Amino acid sequence: MVGRLRTLMIALAGASAMAAPAFATDLSITCRCVEGGANSQMAEWIKQSVIPGFEKMKSESGEDVTVTLKEFAGQDEQLTQQQALDFSTGAGADVNGFDGFLIPSFVEAGLLKPLDELAGPAVNEWEGWDHISDGSKQLMSFDGKVYGIALGTDVRMIFIRKDLFEQAGIDADSWQPTSWDDLLDAARKIKEAVPDSSPLQINAGVSMGEATTMQGYYMLVLGADSGLKDENGKWIVSSPGILDTLNFYKTVYLDEELGDRRAQLLGDGRNRTFANFRDGKTAMLVEGDWFYRAVTAPGSEFELKDRDNLMTWKKMPAREPGAGFSGQDFVTISGGTGFVLNPNTDAPEEAWDLLAYMNSKEQLEAFQTYQARIRLRDDVGIPDSPFLSETSQELLPLTTARPNDADYNKVSAEVQRMTEAVVSGEMSPEEAMEQYKAAVTEIVGAENTVSLQ
């Protein structure tokens, strides 16, 4: 229930009249996080650090505030559906875990409000803004207004199983692919050396949702000097880059069977790809840094034993040197997840106080002890994590971001359908691109699309 506010009448001992009412506030937080399950470290941080710290801070200022974490064990898409229902009916938690790319569509539907409109001037007076760049603010913004705060950002790369490379006679430490051909050549050698392996995993299909768009399609299409939009802000609906990307998928999953094709089509396919890597069936997996800091971390479901000896990482190459987005040799993309306020909260000022406290230097430094990652605040470092320090330094200068557009979610869904049509063998790359062109044109209007030659 949204910020249930209860009023307690406190009787003074020996007095015949009641004292002035004192208010106690109940707040709740929800996120896709379950202690001992998905995003366990986040759940632990909220329950063990954020909640007791916030309640103590409020108590010391004379306020009675109780905070509850509502753990959500479903998939990202299921949480999004639940939040859309909650926000439209006045239900749900006060503070909600949220992916920044969803903000435009929720705003257009009237399901989110800017932080300062909801919680007042305290939002703009928050000390944290001085430590968050304007670019980082945009991860949870739309149309010039801020709707939430991202806990951090991320980068994407190729994760490597060194033992499988060794079996194929490739030195994983010195190997750095500079083209798609290099990726395919390595995959072929590994497949020959380990016939029952699925050497290369790059996400495709509908069941993987946004992971297909970000970890799969984007990492390829950026390498073909393209993206979802052109420099004029029009959606690219057909291009040589899109066709090259789809043909790469076809080579990997159909023509040469270098990847686990079934995993792209199953409901639990993404977890299957994690298991494939853990179990030594996949040698190259294109994923975000979350794969290191959470998926393969000690104690996780897909923990990789002896991880730092068995696993390394490589930059994702463009199709060929210089052929990538903005003429780059290597590409990556970043997103941002964080928290927003329920537009129907009964206690907007207190909910903002909680959100601000979660993003204080003190609490983000505490979070780093649970899960070190790239934080938005420039006064919060990455402790004891050579991996994250190295990858962020190497990849952030190369990164770009998803379009901040209300139609993005719908277009992303069409990307997922397009890749699935190819990987399933239902359509040729040319046919799938034509279907994508028709679908996106219907979504955004022909005047907002472009076909490149």
TrEMBL record:
Cross-referenced PANTHER family: ARABINOSE-BINDING PROTEIN-RELATED, BLR3389 PROTEIN
Gene name linked to the record: cycB_2
InterPro entries the record matches: Bact_solute-bd_prot1 (IPR050490), SBP (IPR006059)
Gene Ontology CC annotations of this record: periplasmic space
Family: Belongs to the bacterial solute-binding protein 1 family.
Primary residence: periplasm
Name of the molecule in the record: Cyclodextrin-binding protein
Signal peptide: 1-24
Annotated localization: Periplasm
Record keywords, A-Z: Periplasm, Plasmid, Signal
